[in-house]
Amino acid sequence: MTLLQVMAADNAADVRVRTSDDELIGTELARHGITFGRWPVVENAASVPSEELLAHYETNVAELNETGRYKHIDIARIHPDDADPQWPEIAKGARGKFLDEHRHAEDEVRFFAAGRGCFYLHLGEEVLAVVCEGGDLLSVPAGTLHWFDMGERPDFIAIRFFEEEDGWVGDFTGDKISAGFPTLDELLTAP
Fold first, then answer.
1. E strands, the chain, where?
2. Residue 108: how many CA atoms within 13 Å on its side-chain side?
3. If you ran DSSP here, which 8-state letter would residue 152 be given?
4. What are the angstrom distances between the C-alpha of 183 and each of 9, 152, 191?
5. CA end-to-end distance (rounded Å), the chain
6. I need a surface site. Which of 74, 114, 123, 129 has the fewest CB within 10 A?
7. Tens digit of each residue's pLDDT, the chain (191 residues)
8. What is the pTM for the complete model shown?
9. What is the dihedral of CA 113, 188, 108, 28, to 10 degrees?
10. What is the spatial distance between Cα 157 and Cα 114, in angstroms, rounded to a whole number?
11. CA 94, CA 154: separation in Å to the nearest integer?
């Protein structure tokens, strides 16, 4: 379920908005210069090779990139593999990479072709937790303080858009604000 939860930056228990209404999510995010949209979902996307998935979304990608701004477009995939004894450590390592507050020098643009992840946007006195799932497109402006949680059992496919090859490099703030907010898994199970 796509979800937006707006909380006070100094008190995660102070929930100001919680909604799964796409229109309300889009309106709330737009107030902060954040783009939210929906693209159609490919059934069984996990079984579709990345090249075919990119070809399927060719028109959507071309529309989004009509100015040619994004020079590097790829697909990130992570799926549980219970047959691999290393999977728990792989998942923990992947999840831990972006759990702390950081920013990027360029916009962070992601389309979730399948699965889910949560962007936490630290916007002044509020933190907006945006749970994205298959079909969701999110564009976070350059310099926005945020962190990302892919959950305890990461499982998603995301098309990523970069202006520069190293656009994904995070500038970490050292602030441990993320530790005081509900995780992706907690957000999904909250009443």
1. 3-8, 11-19, 35-38, 72-78, 102-103, 108-123, 126-133, 136-140, 145-149, 156-162, 171-172
2. 21
3. S
4. 15, 9, 14
5. 13
6. 74
7. 899 999 999 999 999 999 999 999 999 999 999 999 999 999 999 999 999 999 999 999 999 999 999 999 999 999 999 999 999 999 999 999 999 999 999 999 999 999 999 999 999 999 999 999 999 999 999 999 999 999 999 999 999 999 988 767 889 999 999 999 999 999 999 98
8. 0.96
9. 110
10. 5
11. 8
Name the token pair of 159: 């098309």
Amino acid at 116: R
* Cβ–Cβ under 8 Å, residues 117 and 12: no
